[in-house]
Specification:
Elements: E1 7-9, H1 25-30, E2 34-37, E3 64-67, H2 80-104, E4 113-120, E5 154-161, E6 167-171, H3 175-182, H4 191-199, H5 209-223, H6 225-230, E7 234-238, E8 242-247, E9 253-257, E10 261-268, H7 280-288
Helix pairs in contact: 3-7
Bound molecules: succinic acid (SIN) and fe (iii) ion.
């Protein structure tokens, strides 16, 4: 894909409308493209627009969120009916997103796992507290989380811009090009450290070599301002009332501006993928010429 524009436009206008199975959208998604649906919007119901205000957020959190199958509403100060309505809005977005992905990617049916659903009401850049470079999503990165090793489980995300301002992203170069750029700077993984961090409760499971590489790629890209400036990239504004989808562990992305977005995370086990040779795991295993996960996710 070198040099090609990384965004594919989909002509969908309804979350549940049937479409031709003969499209190439699953392949394009798994190859690391962003699927963009300009005519698909997540419609608010009743008085949900009232949630577009700072008063519902826990000031210490960047989003209001739920976790699949868990009745708690997290990151919010809402109580009573307000709490229930916010929860219902997020649960409805989860249902719409998962139904759409099951149709776009039939091989994920029965295997993918919806994880968290979040509402991000803050304007990007509005946080006046000093943001460490590592947490600054205005820098191009692939998603990788220190405490949550994936062991190769994929991170698929569905985004809906629900406010009235565009969300401005940058989308960077293909994963393999980025990995080749930084690979030589990554230290050897230490199995002893991985065990220790798990025993101390720093990680939820023992960090695999794959997760070690992914975390370093996240950090090296974010720390390198010259790379941020000079690497192959495009700027793209997702307008109000649209939806986009990508594997955020694969697509280099940065969110520069915007407010009011819904986001659904779906975990996809590698064996559900139709094109498993395009994954970050497959690419990193080719580049290092060795297996990087001992006990595969599944
Ligand atoms: C991110 O996942 O890096 C941020 C996406 C966004 O806030 O638009
Ligand atoms: Fe991200």
């Amino acid at each position: 894909m070198p040099g090609s524009h990384p965004i594919t436009t989909l002509p969908l206008s309804d979350w549940h409308e049937p479409f031709d199975a003969g499209n190439s959208w699953q392949r394009e998604l798994e190859e690391g493209r962003v699927l963009y649906c300009p005519d698909l919007s997540f419609r608010l119901e009743g008085t949900e627009e009232r949630f577009f205000a700072a008063q519902w957020s826990d000031p210490k959190r960047k989003s209001i969120y739920i976790r699949h199958g868990n009745p708690e509403l997290l990151g919010s100060t809402a109580t009573g009916d307000d709490r229930d309505h916010l929860y219902a809005m997020l649960a409805r977005f989860e249902q719409h997103s998962t139904a759409l992905i099951e149709r776009l990617c039939p091989s994920y049916q029965g295997k993918m796992r919806p994880a968290g659903t979040s509402f991000r009401p803050r304007a990007i850049g509005s946080d006046t507290r000093a943001l460490s470079w590592r947490k600054d999503d205005r820098r191009l990165h692939v998603d990788a989380f220190p405490s949550n090793p994936t062991l190769g489980m994929r991170i698929l995300r569905v985004f809906a811009n629900v406010g009235d301002v565009a969300r401005s992203w940058r989308v960077g170069e293909p994963f393999e090009d980025m990995a080749r750029h930084f690979m030589s700077q990554i230290p050897k993984p230490s199995p002893i450290m991985a065990q220790l961090q798990f025993r101390l409760g720093i990680t939820k499971r023992v960090r695999s070599d794959y997760d070690h590489f992914m975390l370093h790629l996240h950090d090296l890209a974010k720390a390198d301002m010259q790379y941020q400036r000079d690497c192959q990239q495009i700027a793209f504004d997702f307008p109000p009332g649209c939806v986009w989808i990508c594997f955020s562990d694969q697509v280099m992305h940065a969110a520069m501006a915007g407010q009011y977005m819904l986001e659904q995370t779906i975990h996809v086990p590698p064996q559900a993928l139709a094109y498993p040779n395009e994954t970050p795991l497959a690419i990193l295993e080719r580049l290092t010429a060795r297996p990087l996960v001992e006990h595969a996710a599944g």
